[in-house]
Amino acid sequence: MAALNEEQTMVKDQATAWVNEQSPVQKFRALRDSGNPRAFEPTTWSAMIEMGWSGILIPAQYGGSDLGYLTFGVVLEQLGRQLTASPLFASALVGASAVLLGGTEAQKQKLLPKVVDGSEILTLAVDEGPRHAPAATALAAAKSNGGFTLTGAKRFVVEGMSATTFVVAARTSGKPGSMDGITLFTVPADAKGLVRERIVTVDSRGYANVEFDGVTVAADAVLGEVDRGGVLLESVLDRARAGLAAEMMGTAGQAFDMTLEYLKTRTQFGAVIGSFQALGHRAAGLFTSMELARSCAEASLQAIDAGAANVPELVSLAKCKVGDFLHEMSNQLIQIHGGIGMTDEFDAGFYLKRARVAEALYGNQAFHRDRYARLLGF
Amino acid sequence: MPDGTALNAFRESTRKWIRDNFPGSLKGKGLGYEGDADSGLAKDLDVWRARLAGQGWGAPTWPKEYGGAGLSQSEARIINDELIAAGAFNPISMLSGMGITMVGPTVLEYGTEDQKRRHLPGIASGEVRWCLGLSEPNAGSDLASLATKAEDNGDHFVLNGQKTWTSGANISQWCGAVVRTDPKAKKRDGISFVMLPMDQPGVRTRPIKLIAGASPFCETFFTDAIAEKRDLLGELNDGWSVVKRLLQHERQSQTGSRVAASGEKPTPIQELAKTYVGTNADGTLADADLRLRIADHLMDARAHTLTIARITAEAKGNVQVSAAASILKNSATKVAQIKAELTLELMGAQGLGWEGDAFTNKELGAVREWLSGKAMSIYGGSFEIQNNIISKNILGLPETTQKG
Question: Which residue of A has its CA nearest to B280?
């Protein structure tokens, strides 16, 4: 872990204790078995709000604690370890970042206190095709009666079933393929013409496809500037990716710990299997990858907090390297556990399933490798 | 540890001292002139070395009485940073051979007061070069099976046997050697660490030619060579704990931490690739497959650098020999070897020359670097040995079923 300050250490200790005692992976299993369409437990969410986690990014005048992205990452990592499902990431990190970076004072006053107290759940609606491609935004926002009319569809919207307000990337000019001409809008979930449908995914979380059939919004629904939302969208996405990388680090770290424990206890051929060099070396390789990935994840969050110019580079680095490690680690979690790893009764499958969704979300490793090369000018 | 204000003041005074003392003729240069007696640069280099040594900056964290400057790790890093920023370099580490990085720290820990006073100042000033006699033809990764004998002969030991891969043995003044002092004991229990001068009739060296051509490595033959008893480092027959510590220092020195050894800045690999491979209309590299492999390599290199920074920050600026050294050694090796392979590949046929005018010096240099770099995953504990260390010492997995 990075050299944390006193406040961050306190938050980390609190999150670690709470996750272990109140939200072990058995809770996620119960949630999955229940088929709850919101895909999170209301009591889990209210406990997070009570602990102040929904306000970690939000300044004091809107009711938050303004502790920054590294602190948020510390919490997300712990949640990732036990696969705790909640709208915390979508609302208090991604949605809140959009309002903080792009919102007017009036928009901040209207939305942020409600993000903190949980009466609003925000989420970003960006992708329209099966792969992450923000520049491909085609959902049209046409000027009408001093406001805008939105027509189109968004797919795979995180916490799309429980969101109360969507932050929607729409095209006000230009053509799909360009980040120019994109505008961000806040759209209430109960707006006329907005229809959402739950999609049941392999990680058992709450995603929705959302149709916008001539949804009208007033001019003050614009977040940031008309036609110039592309830069804002990238900044919001980079914060989302860095936060997600922290959560993925937790998921992968837990998968590593489970595997290491098994290597030390499972006996075959009269020996603990961790004494076989083939497996010892595999564990050493995974551990090395984990240490390298952790450095990338933490550096990206620290760069955001510091307002560094190289945030996009470090974020793509983090999402790609943590993604690579989680991919391999989740496969090895199953492989090293052997037959037991294939059973639904054991938790390994949950980690594998969550891994692939988190990898794909906001750009998979291929997306970020390509972006990293572009950012470096080749 | 000094506070921020004190460190800033130290940085200021360091910057000023470098400005006043670094010979302008050496700016942006490195080592390589010291052997050339006709060169004015050789004289400037020795003046620069002596000035650094006068400050105790050859080994800034060592105590003053042994030739160091008694500074903290943070202050030592400032000196290094400021040297790099000024286009300067610190030749002392290189000139001391294995002295600054390995022998010195081990003598500081295990040495007698007499040994520290006799050996450390020469290392810290860059005037005495050290080599290490560790590996033998039949003791590589399994170092503890070494056979070089040292027999007690009153006030000294008599050494017989052969060492190999002794880097710089032909130009060193002193050698630290692991030798067998009790042939009847279990293999790790009968080993001792002795120090001996190279300039004596019983020591002979022969350079080893490698796949990349000439190399710093030698074979070293001991035939009734003499090591004084006062130069036994650590206890008799307890040399294995000394050598384990020594090897930790070796891993630490091979983790790729930035050292101000030379001011020259290489062309980034992606820019080199553009000149050889060409670009598409949108500025991306024309070879899409190579492009992504270079991107991945650059990410791994960045992850490595960030990991060094993270471990340093977590240790609150006081990185000693750490458990992470094996991870960093393997990671540094991977980054360097893949970079060499990618460089060769992007140069195409120009990356396959051995000598002659058909190739530039940089192209020929890249080929030699590619070949010599294959040693990185072998020396200092091979890639596989590091993985053994990680799995046993860091992860706590049980002893592997193989011996060693």
Answer: A378
